[in-house]
Specification:
five-stranded antiparallel sheet, 25% strand, alpha/beta, Enolase-like, domain 1, 20 strands, FAD/NAD(P)-binding domain, 464 residues, five-stranded mixed beta barrel, single chain
């Protein structure tokens, strides 16, 4: 006999937890299936531990650039304490507290690998052995996330490289580190391990630029900071072969130039692959290994009856944790019978890159807006244009750029670069998501002397 629930959620990461919590709070019996740890990638191997590694170097920089405070700073970072703090924020890689939360939220947690076996049917291969058959009276939700992509480079898999998981969980600081990729994971972890004491860090990006999707001024400032911190940044460079006997010890990386690099660890940060390969989606007419295409109510397209939903990375719409959580809340509401429409994940997405300097952006870049044929005007000012930045410390600089729809006089996007600018982003997110007219933004007066006063400089530059 199958266990019957109103809702079965496969995947206990942020997206799955939010769907399940929403439907359970609405009175629907809900099963949450997870094969690894409740909390998922973000909680244990990505967002949370990486920021725990990056925060101490940021705090140290701020202290060293504040006269009076810098005189009190003696010595360098204590890597062992930083790693201990990392272990603390991931609860020693133990999800007991998440399990306690789930039970308090009235969820039936099923530990094992779940896969579809047909309409509204899920078979779970239990971690302790055996199987459990689940059926869903109302909905099944796929929230299995994504995994690191390993390029098809000879010898790479056999070398057992780091992915984001090992790159955030290492117990020791490598002496030499080579990083494949130039995106968020690559830049953040390059800077983190360099700050923790890695003597040689080499970042290899096959494209023309690192952080290719952000505004050019932002990536230029980040690249400059990486180089200033002793990180070697090489663009238009490809890895052609990797050699590491037995998958341990020194790793040799061969480049398309014929050069070879030697390192203690090799971090692969070249994108993500959605986790649908072993999910049973073929039993309902979908393609394994491909994102589950969904409508704006997060229902899987091509599946009759509207009972199958997909949230988070698995649907390919937006591979950011907070947008997966957003989708989860909307999907949960739709399952409960409410009218919803997902649109922020395509038009008003915020993201923070926690390098130093930080990059915080929301909405469209100038290039994206122009590609869509929108009537664009941009304004850009430096953070040093306001008194508040000088009070934050010496060398507290950066820049902000707005992308404006000239016809409607609303913000299409905004990008901030500078120390701790991630905490300034939400005001821009509200302006973009709410389509607040610039003439009204002029009356949103920032407190003096805060760094947020840069909004006045931006609007003045625009002509208000």
């Amino acid at each position: 006999m199958a266990d019957a629930f109103d809702v079965v959620v496969i995947g206990g990461g942020p997206a799955g937890e939010n769907v399940a919590a929403r439907t359970a709070a609405g009175g629907l019996s809900t099963a949450l299936v997870e094969v690894e740890r409740l909390g998922g990638e973000c909680s244990f191997w990505a967002c949370v531990p990486s920021k725990a590694l990056l925060r101490p170097p940021e705090a140290l920089w701020l202290a060293r650039h504040s006269p009076g405070a810098r005189e009190a700073v003696k010595g360098s970072l204590d890597a062992s304490q930083v790693l201990a703090r990392r272990d603390e924020v991931v609860h020693g890689y133990d999800d007991s507290s998440q399990l306690e939360w789930a039970r308090g939220a009235k969820l039936d947690v099923v530990r094992g690998h779940g896969r579809l076996t047909g309409p509204r049917a899920v078979r779970v291969t239990l971690r302790e052995g055996g199987t459990r058959e689940l059926t869903a009276r109302r909905a099944v939700v796929l929230a299995t996330g994504s995994r690191a992509r390993i390029p098809d480079v000879p010898g790479l898999r056999e070398a057992k490289p780091w992915t984001n998981r090992e790159g955030t969980a290492s117990k020791a600081v490598p002496r030499r580190l080579v990083v494949m990729g130039g995106g968020v994971v690559a830049t953040e972890l390059s800077q983190a391990w360099r700050a923790l004491g890695t003597g040689e860090v080499t970042l290899l990006e096959r494209g023309e630029h690192i952080l290719g999707r952000v505004e050019p001024f932002a990536r230029e400032l980040v690249e400059k900071a990486l180089r200033e911190r002793g990180i070697t940044v090489r663009t238009r460079t490809q890895v052609t072969r990797v050699h590491r006997p037995g998958g341990q010890g020194e790793v040799t990386v061969t480049l398309d130039t014929g050069e070879t690099l030697r390192a203690d660890e090799l971090l692969v940060a070249t994108g993500r692959v959605v986790s649908t390969q072993d999910l049973g989606v073929e039993t309902v007419g979908l393609t394994p290994g491909k994102p589950v295409e969904v409508d704006d109510q997060l229902r899987a397209r091509g599946v009759e009856g509207g009972w199958l939903y997909a949230c988070g990375d698995v649907n390919g719409r937006n591979l950011l944790t907070h947008m997966g959580k957003y989708q989860g809340r909307l999907a949960g509401d739709h399952i409960l019978g409410k009218q919803v429409e997902a649109w922020a994940d395509t038009r008003a997405t915020p993201q923070v890159i926690f390098t130093h300097p930080q990059v915080a952006a929301v909405g469209l870049s100038e290039a994206e807006a122009r590609k869509r044929g929108l009537p664009v005007r941009t304004v850009q000012v430096g953070l040093d244009s306001v008194a508040g930045s000088s009070l934050m410390g010496e060398g507290f600089d950066g820049a902000v750029k707005l992308v404006v729809d000239e016809r409607r006089r609303i913000l299409l996007g905004a990008t901030f670069v500078g120390p701790e600018v991630g905490e300034m982003l939400h005001s821009a997110t509200i302006a973009v998501a709410g389509e607040v007219p610039l003439d009204k933004l002029w009356h949103a007066v920032p407190a003096y002397p805060t760094v947020s006063e840069v909004w006045l400089r931006l609007l003045e530059s625009y002509g208000l």
